[in-house]
Design goal:
Helix content: 40-55%
Structural class: alpha+beta
Mean pLDDT: 92
Number of helices: 25
Radius of gyration: 25 Å
Number of strands: 20
Shape: globular
Distance between the termini: 22 Å
Strand content: 15-25%
Largest sheet: 7 strands, antiparallel
Strand order of the largest sheet: 3-2-4-1-10-9-11
Length: 643
């Protein structure tokens, strides 16, 4: 786990590039506080050397940089950039290849010699055997850059689901990349241009860029599951994996047995580390499942559990986390977010995200990871399960009900209609008739999103927002309404944002977050299954509940309520309202021209009077956006402060 960066000037070498790559690496020190290293190469001469620091005047036209967070093989042998035996292929790598031991054995059998016990070195030798198609062999999360000095080609790759970030820009004839936008900004000492359309969509509907776009016009993300090969002749981008049926749904074994086998193996693989490992335990079904499975693979190794708590708030789940901790016998630490520095904390989160959060759950996560970092360097968590297994009843019940009604037959009418009613009941928390009526109305009439705040935009910004073309949406390759909804959530709608802030906040604290539910074998298997394995009547995550029925405590297994990591945002805003208002109505904010200042003032006044709970989310977005402007456009990043 590291921060990586690189640049390639394809015309005449420039001595200033050595300083640029140094600044880029320095901006990523939080991602890799343990070590650093650089590759200095000349593409034309096909020369390359690994150095402690880049040297101006070396004649190098290509630089790679690594800031290392040592997780496997803590010795000097694990230092990056790391080369093959011949010293003509090099890699810098951010992430974890969880099947590296199996791949190492396979590569050693082919004659490859390893000098370290890292997963990084597996990438180099895998590339020698399979070329850029080696990405298909990896089980894990990654963003890596390989410099092939023999062929003068730079190969970039990002994991299947975009767990690890990789950003690209082309300033002044240079191809540059980095793990974070701020590294690109630091390297070339230029202020990025905001993408006004993305900012408008964030304010109006709480959406964030996914796939390729960022909040900056001149900086893009390499899409998940893509390779990018750069040569002097140009760039070729290709997708190496996609969400398509993989033929696993017809497994002869029971789906629940196969699911448990895959999840157990995914969890065991992600426990491999030469540093302490912990688990972020919310008390929900997903993280509880990971905790129960992990506890059986510890072999005496210490394991700490960390849980966010919100005393006095209805969304507090600490009592469920305690049930799981008691069952496993693992020590549990409760962590409460202190909103005393609410505005400053949000500014730090925005800075590390290089973007804008959609909800206030980023703040307790900030404190949770900061606390975990005091005793562990790796955490496991249950991210990715909701989007895979239909974990949002309020959202996934509607497509599930449509599937049930589509498959309604005289022979199954009674049981199917009973399941429809139960699904509506759990989705509406006890108002099934109203939910069904509302669902029917929504199917016939297009309604604006619940959190629509277009009236906060200025006239010019609203015109831009209204005329902007959205990218064409692909059709789901999976049959049925529920599977299509899950595919959209997993690929574009929800999961990419969760992965973005999850990585940014964990790496801000120099902690590696691992996600068993995003093992690609598990994802492929579950997407191949019919909708009835994911949602059935009153049971969301039906397959998970069945598969772990003998593992989970009844209090967890039989839960029917989904909290969704709610936070007491209104309480926090009220406590810090004077500071919030100062930022949101500052002269700088008013002068940007993006917002209708009268509408913003009306919004704030209404919140102060206690009107309309939806105002909480709108104010949160306005605050986050102005803090983002201050950090990236005005050039005033927040001071680092870890809890």
């Amino acid at each position: 786990m590291c921060g990586i960066a690189g640049l390639w000037r394809m015309d005449t070498p420039n001595d200033a590039d050595a300083l640029s790559i140094q600044r880029m690496a320095d901006a990523l020190v939080h991602r890799g506080p343990d070590d650093s290293g650089y590759l200095c190469a000349n593409a034309r001469r096909r020369t390359a050397s690994v150095q402690d620091a880049p040297q101006a005047g070396s004649g190098a036209d290509l630089f790679l940089a690594s800031r290392r967070l040592a997780i496997l093989d803590l010795s000097e042998a694990g230092r990056q950039p790391l080369a093959n035996e011949a010293g003509d292929i090099f890699v810098v790598f951010n992430g974890a290849i969880h099947n590296h031991l199996a791949l190492r054995r396979e590569l050693e059998a082919l004659g490859h010699v390893f000098r370290s016990h890292t997963d990084t070195e597996v990438i180099v030798h895998a590339y020698e055997v399979w070329g850029e198609a080696c990405a298909n062999r990896f089980n894990g999360m990654w963003a890596y850059a390989i410099w092939d000095a023999r062929a003068s080609r730079l190969v970039l790759s990002r994991d299947r689901f975009g767990m690890k970030p990789l950003y690209i820009s082309r300033p002044n004839g240079v191809f540059a990349f980095a793990s974070e936008v701020k590294a690109l900004v630091a390297g070339f000492a230029t202020r990025p241009t905001p993408d006004a359309e993305m900012l408008a969509r964030y304010v109006a509907h709480g959406t964030a860029p996914t796939h390729r776009r960022t909040m900056f016009e001149s900086i893009e993300a390499l899409p998940a599951a893509h390779n990018l090969v750069i040569t002097s002749a140009g760039a070729v981008e290709s997708r190496y994996w996609d969400y398509t049926p993989h033929g696993q749904g017809g497994d002869t074994r029971q789906p629940d047995a196969r699911f448990r086998e895959l999840l157990d193996d995914a969890t065991a693989l992600r426990l491999t580390a030469d540093v302490p490992v912990g688990i972020l335990l919310s008390g929900g079904l997903d993280s509880s499942a990971i905790t129960m499975l992990a506890s059986r693979h510890l072999d005496g190794a210490p394991m700490h559990l960390f849980t966010s708590v919100f005393p006095g708030f209805w969304g507090d789940e600490s009592r469920y986390a305690r049930v799981v901790a008691d069952r496993t016998g693992l020590p549990l630490q409760f962590v409460e977010y202190d909103p005393t520095s609410f505005v400053e904390d949000l500014g730090r989160v925005v800075w590390h995200m290089d973007g804008l959060p959609l909800s206030a759950q980023v703040l307790p996560r900030w404190t949770l990871l900061g606390t975990a970092a005091q005793s562990v360097k790796v955490v496991l968590e249950g991210q990715g399960a909701d989007e895979l297994l239909a974990g949002y009843p309020w959202s996934h019940a509607r497509p599930y009900i449509r599937d049930e009604l589509t498959h309604l037959r005289p022979s199954n009418a009674a049981s199917s209609l009973r399941r429809v009613w139960d699904a509506a009941d759990i989705a509406s928390r006890g108002r099934p008739a109203r939910f069904l009526a509302r669902s029917a109305w929504t199917a016939l009439h297009r309604e604006p999103p619940v959190d629509a705040f277009e009236h906060l935009l200025s006239r010019d910004t609203a015109a831009l927002f209204g005329s902007a073309d959205l990218p064409r949406q692909r059709r789901s390759p999976f049959p049925g309404h529920l599977n299509a909804a899950l595919w959209a959530d997993h690929r574009r709608a929800i999961l990419p944002h969760l992965l973005h802030f999850g990585d940014a906040i964990s790496m801000a604290h120099s902690v590696e977050s691992r996600l068993p539910f995003l093992d690609h074998r598990l994802v492929e298997f579950v997407f191949d299954l019919p909708f009835t394995e994911k949602f059935r009547g009153s049971q969301s995550k039906y397959l998970l509940r069945r598969a772990l029925a003998d593992d989970l405590p009844p209090a967890i297994l039989n839960r029917r309520t989904k909290v969704g990591f709610e936070t007491p945002l209104r309480r926090w805003l009220k406590r810090s309202f004077a500071n919030v208002r100062t930022v949101v109505e500052s002269p700088e904010a008013r002068g940007r021209g993006l917002l209708d200042t009268a509408a913003v003032s009306h919004l704030l006044a209404g919140f102060e009077r206690g009107h309309d709970a939806r105002r909480d989310r709108a104010i949160f977005r306005l605050l986050a956006m102005e803090l983002w402007f201050g950090a990236f456009v005005d050039g005033h990043p927040p001071k680092a402060r870890l809890p």
